[in-house]
Amino acid sequence: QVQLVESGGGLVQAGGSLRLSCAASGRTFSRDVMGWFRQAPGKEREFVAAISWSGGTTYYADSVKGRLTISRDNAKNTVYLQMNSLKPEDAAVYYCAATFHKQWRSDAVYIPDWYDNWGQGTQVTVSS
Question: N or C terminus: fewer CB in 10 A for the chain?
Answer without folding.
Answer: N
